[in-house]
Write a structure and sequence with these properties.
It is found in: Cell envelope. Keywords: Signal. Belongs to the bacterial solute-binding protein 2 family. Its main location: other. The chain has 314 residues and is of the alpha/beta class. The protein is built from 11 helices and 12 strands. It folds into 2 domains: 3-130 and 268-293, Rossmann fold; 134-266, 3-Layer(aba) Sandwich (Rossmann fold). The chain has helices at 3-20, 37-50, 69-81, 98-106, 134-149, 165-181, 196-209, 221-234, 249-257, 268-283, 307-310; strands at residues 26-30, 57-61, 86-89, 111-114, 128-131, 154-159, 185-191, 213-218, 241-245, 262-266, 291-293, 296-299. A 6-stranded parallel β-sheet has the order 2-1-3-4-5-11, with helices on both faces. Strands 7-6-8-9-10-12 form a 6-stranded mixed β-sheet, with helices on both faces. Helix 7 (196-209) packs across helix 8 (221-234). The relative contact order is 0.16.
Length: 314
């Protein structure tokens, strides 16, 4: 057993006794919002995993928007108060969720994080973290941008919620890679609050005020959709190199028609499936890794029909 596994197991032996006694044997899956297909695909993965978790059931919740952080805090607190067996959580804010995760730890309820990191101060309070390596994913998108436009010009960055763990790594990785490997001028970032309409309006404004823009990056699903729609409406689809993030049907269609040059797609189904599988292992006192990478695939018009791409698209 490797060191990480031993540490995770040792920290949980005392936690799991209480969790296993939860009356309803409920696993609470709490995501950033229930109103995006990315998170709905996480739910599909969780639903698949629970089929093999004998005696357990899941509940799935998310606020109306990713910026409704207080609502997510309440959802986690309520799950702790009703004594669930385990929690799979995609935290919307790295600091705001710390007290709630600590409450779960104090109540001996194991927590598995997906998608976004939590503050370092809470590292003892969760048992595993499953996510795309967002920094590496941002770098992958940046390299694709350089491959398309070269090392000069302007690139706009359309981001989502400032300070979210995934945003820090993803957008930071993208921007830092461009700065280190090119002379590209960064415009932004602009924050859509994960609202498609906001991203559309912001992108429209950016395109109008930067007629010499060479490239644009949309850092999550609703932001990238809004970005793609703005490009199409402005007549600049295919003229400005656009790279998005995530892989729902709208974004796939943008890739197919050339509006987007590429999309970096996370394994959202895998996050839900592996998240539930991991928390069940913790409950059953089986060793788990403290960190697990769920991967990312750069999908283009050339590879969109390949098995590698189809396995992550949704």
């Amino acid at each position: 057993m490797n060191k990480l596994a031993k540490v995770a197991l040792a920290s949980l032996l005392s936690l799991t006794a209480g969790a296993a006694m939860a009356q309803e044997k409920e696993i609470a899956v709490i995501v950033k919002t229930a109103n995006a297909t990315f998170w709905q695909n996480v739910q599909k993965g969780a639903d698949e995993a629970i089929k093999d978790a004998d005696g357990y059931s899941i509940t799935f919740q998310g606020p109306a928007s990713e910026s409704a952080i207080a609502d997510q805090v309440n959802m986690v607190d309520n799950a702790v108060n009703r004594g669930v067996a385990g929690i799979v959580l995609a935290p919307s804010d790295p600091e705001a969720l710390v007290p709630s995760i600590k409450k779960a730890w104090e109540a001996r309820i194991p927590v598995v994080l997906i998608d976004s990191a939590i503050a370092d101060s809470a590292s003892d309070y969760f048992q595993s973290f499953l996510a795309t390596d967002n920094k590496a994913a941002g770098e992958l998108a940046a390299q694709a941008m350089i491959d398309k436009i070269g090392t000069d010009g302007k690139v706009a960055v359309m981001s989502y919620v400032a300070g979210a763990g995934s945003e820090i790594g993803r957008v930071g990785g993208f921007v830092d890679y461009l700065k280190a490997n090119s002379n590209i001028e960064i415009v932004g970032p602009f924050y859509s609050q994960s609202q498609m309409a906001t991203a559309l309006n912001q992108t429209t404004d950016v395109l109008a005020s930067n007629p010499d823009l060479k490239g644009i990056f949309g850092a999550n699903e609703p932001t990238a959709i809004g970005m793609g729609r703005a490009l199409a409406q402005s007549g600049k689809a295919g003229q400005v190199v656009a790279i998005g993030f995530d892989g729902n049907e709208d974004l796939q269609n943008f890739v197919k028609d050339g509006t987007l040059a590429a999309i970096a797609v996370q394994g959202s189904f895998q996050m839900g499936e592996l998240g539930v599988e991991t928390v069940v292992k913790v409950i059953n006192r089986e060793p788990v890794e403290k960190q697990q990478d769920t991967g990312v695939v750069l999908v283009t018009k050339e590879n969109i029909d390949t098995p590698e791409a189809q396995n992550v698209l949704y």
